[in-house]
Amino acid sequence: MPPLSRIVPLPTRALLRGVPFLLAAACGPSDPPKKDVRVATPSPALGDTAQAVAARVKDAAMPESLAPRRPAIDSSVRVDSAGATGPSDSTRRPAADSGRWKPRPPVLRGRAAPDSIAIASLDRDSLRVTGWPVKQAPSLPGAVVPGARIIAYYGNPLSTRMGILGEIAPEQMMARLEKEAAEWQRADPSTKVIPALHIVGVVAQGSAGRDGKWRARMNDSLLARVQRWADSKGWLYFIDVQVGLSTLREELPRLRPWLEKPNVHLGIDPEFSMKDGSAPGKKIGTFNAADVNYAVRFLSEIVREKKIPPKVLIVHRFTRGMVTGTSDIALDPAVQVVMQMDGWGRPALKIATWRNFIQPEPVQFTGFKIFYKNDAKSGQPILRPGEVLRLWPRPVYIQYQ
Fold first, then answer.
1. Residue 178 lies in a domain
2. Confidence of residue 13 (pLDDT cuts 50, 70, 90)
C-alpha cells in the first residue's frame, strides 16, 4: 500500500441543525419527545439532489437524532483505500443507588435560560431513572473503569477537521489534554483521571475504493506514531473503526496486533456501518447486538489468551437506530462496554439526546462526547466538567473532538 497522504472526504451532513429547543425534552422525564416535536431541514451536502435532501429529511425524523454529528473527515485530506428498544432484561436490574456527587457544581454563569434549566434538571435523574447502575460481575484485575475516568482526545493526524488530535501540533495537543484532564480531576477528586488518545484507524470514505468497501485503513506507521505519543505520557490509546460497507469481522482481525498491547483499546462507530449498501455520510448507519457481541468476544479472547487487563470498548451512539437490540448485548468481565453519547449541539440538545438514547437502554457504562467547535455554534459555551458530572449515570469516558 502506498504511503498515506490524504483522506477522502465524506459530504458534510449537518443533520437537524437548528432543532428548536424543547423544555420538556431537556428537563422532563426520559420519555421520547411527543408528536409536537418539529424537525429542522438538514443542510444539503455538496452535490445533493432535491431527492437526496428529501430522503435525508425523512431519515432525520425525531426522536432518531436530537443532536447532529460532525462530518467524518476533512475535505482537504485523502488516503488510498485498498433496535429493538424496551425495558432492561432481568439480568440488568438496578443495583443499590451509589449516591450522587456532592456538592453539585454550579451551572456556568452566563448560559441561556433553556440550557441552565436543562443542566440543573439533571440532579433529579438519579431518583427517577431506573436500570442504573447495571448489575454485573465484579471487574477483573486491572480494569480501567469505573475506578478511573478516561479523558480522550479524538481525531486523525492526517486531518485538521476530524478532531483535536489532528487539529494542532502534537506537543500543543498533548499539553492541552493534560490541562483538560487536570480540570476533570479537580471537578471530581474521588475518581482518578487517565488521559487517552483516540485515533480513527479505519475511516469511512466518500468513494468506494479499489475493494468497494468505502473505507480506508490507516497504515501501521500512522498507528504506531500516535501510540508513541500516548506511550510517552503513559496514557491509554484507542483505535476507532468506521467500517463503511465492510464489517467488524473483516476489520478487527487486522488490528489484533495492536489490541494485544495492554494499553490499547477499541472504538466502533455505527454511524458509518452501512448495512443497506448506502454510501457512508448519506444517512446514519447501524450496528446490532450481534455486531457488538462479536467485538466483545474478539477482545475477550485477546485478554484471556495474552493474560492482560480487560479491554474498554467504546460504542458511539446518538440515535436509537444506531445500536439495535441493546438488551441482547452480552457482558463479559474481560471487556468493559461504554455507550457514548456522540451528538453535537447546545447543552439542552445534548442532554435531551442523552435522556432519549443512553439513559433508557442500560448496557454497562456510559461515555459523553464534547465538540470544541460544533457544540459552541449556538453561541453557548461548551459543557464544563462539573456540569457533565451531573449526568446520570455519571460517564466514565469523556471524548473531546
1. yes
2. very low
pLDDT exceeds 90 at position 352 = yes
Domain count, the chain: 1
Q: Quick check: is 39 in a domain?
A: no
Q: What is the mean pLDDT of the chain?
A: 80
For the segment 115-122, the average pLDDT, to the nearest whole number, is 93
The pLDDT score that the predictor gives to residue 34 is 33
- CATH number of the domain residue 267 falls in: 3.20.20
Residue 257: give the domain boundaries. Answer: 103-132+140-400
Residue 12 placed within a domain: no
Give me the mean pLDDT over the 243-271 stretch. Answer: 98
Q: Among candidates 278, 304, 285, which has minimal Cα distance to 241?
A: 285
Q: 14 lies in a domain?
A: no
